[in-house]
Amino acid sequence: MLAKRWTIIPADEQRVLALQEEYRSIGKNVHAIVCRLLVQRGIYTVEEAKKFFIPDLTHLHDPFKFRQMQTAVDRIASAMANNEAIMVYGDYDVDGTTAVALTYGFLKDHYPNVSYYIPCRYKEGYGVSMLGIESAAARGAKLIIALDCGITAIDQVKRAKELGMDFIICDHHKPGDHLPEALAILNPKVPGDTYPYDELSGCGIGFKLAQALCQHFNWPSEDWEKLLDLVVVSIASDLVPVTGENRILAYYGLKRINQRPRAGIKALMEMSKIQGEVNINSLVFVIGPRINAAGRIEHGNDAVKLLLAHSADEAYEAAQTLNTHNNERKDHDRNITEEALQILNDTPSLQTKKTTVLVNEGWHKGVIGIVASRLMDHYYRPTIIMTQSNGSMTGSVRSVKDFDVYEALKACSHLLEKFGGHKYAAGLSLPEENFEAFCHLFEQVVSERILPEQLIPEVSIDAEIEISDCNLNFYTIIEHFGPFGPGNLQPTFVTRNVADTGRSALLNEKHLKLNVDKNKQGPIGGIIFERPDLMNIVQRELRFDVAYHLVINEWKGNKNVEWRIKDIKATETN
After folding, report:
1. What CA–CA distance (Å, rounded) separates 442 from 354?
2. How far from 159 is each of 92, 127, 154, 187, 266, CA to CA, in Å?
3. Of the candidates 355, 349, 553, 574, the residue with the CA atom closest to the CA atom of residue 470
4. Residue 469: its pLDDT value, please?
5. Over 70: is that where the pLDDT of 106 sits?
6. Of 63, 154, 545, 573, which is most buried by a Cβ count within 10 Å?
7. Where along the chain do its domains lie?
């Protein structure tokens, strides 16, 4: 296991003191650590803190701030007035399928002549396909609304125009140097767009379109509020920042899931036996993978059917299908990860590189992204896992913190057939004959651009606290910083100079269950999974430092604050 570097997230101490003083001026004595956490998140006043802790749907941005939203709404209104067929087109991952379910379901409630299309990962690949365009034409569509894809579909949009179809693109991926000639593009990352928040998910942009249509037709707000559950699933699964507008959408989306979930999500919750309230982690690690498994193993249509299910029976049947896909996905994931790690372990020349690029024609195309993430976590460097067929290679790319892998791929674009994605995750395809040249150039580009510290996994620590701070009252305050996710991670604390009480132990020889104290403030318990090696530090009877999240352990009605440990280090003064 790679040693990790610990960094303390900075905070402007003057702003921390000013915020604490402002709270005192209104009669509230707020913990200095709470003020520090707020300042780290760019919150400097009591009024800003109030908006942060109590998100409000009225603070969502006007959807017509998208530069071409009015054009998009007018075209949809025209299609509805003239009974033109509309096709909703989306990608096969969680963001794409939730976006299609949201937009198709919303339009279907108001207009019958609408259909949807999800491309097949294996026949068509990512994004808008020519097969999809031909299918739309065969259905008589006059308008295609593309969600979570389309920003690079220059040839496909051109073909659609030749066939007499207009295109509205709702995408959040980075655009290339040239844009498709679509009727309207709703993408806050497009240069010149006027929308004030550029981190929406693809489903989130579909949601803004639904909001705009509600305003245009004066439909009730409940028509878009009931879509928030799909939006939060996409926010969590696509790992977009839980900041600004996304924080509001996530907050109310989780509230909706926990209070009145749609039939499909409720079926997945019951089938996966989620305990307690659904949170972002539940969506990332339990609900999202099951929805994603449809497009990875069979077809994304299975996910859309689940999300559009009206009855409990229909939803349960669809959830069973997704659960079966997910079990198959786990088998492929485990087997391919083991094979890939074995290749790296058996090839010393690959271990010294700053990138990992592996290909095998037998690897399942639907899980290579997951495998890339696992290998990146293991060796901690930009990683590409590929499969190949019919003279072409297709791959998924994952990157380490603060390294823009999209820009690295852009520098290699002359060797690629196509590529697209984000700073930390992308996809690509290339001819087999370009593989060796690409591996060499990608390694060169990354080596020139990546900093040495970016190749060392990092534990980012928000603040240092004492065991005595770890009480139910403080935990409750920290809970209000949620929902957590990228851009607003669950706070990580460090407590230094603790000592083992003698009750720390290994569980199943693989998990370390800690019991520590410091100056008789405790004791307090905690656990770190898959790190039996850290027992060496604990058993040496030295003082050590612990980095952790706060969690609640509830047993027979009693609640105790514990640590979910991220790392342990021997105290330097030892």
Report:
1. 10
2. 22, 15, 9, 21, 40
3. 553
4. 95
5. yes
6. 63
7. 5-54+459-570, 63-260, 347-455
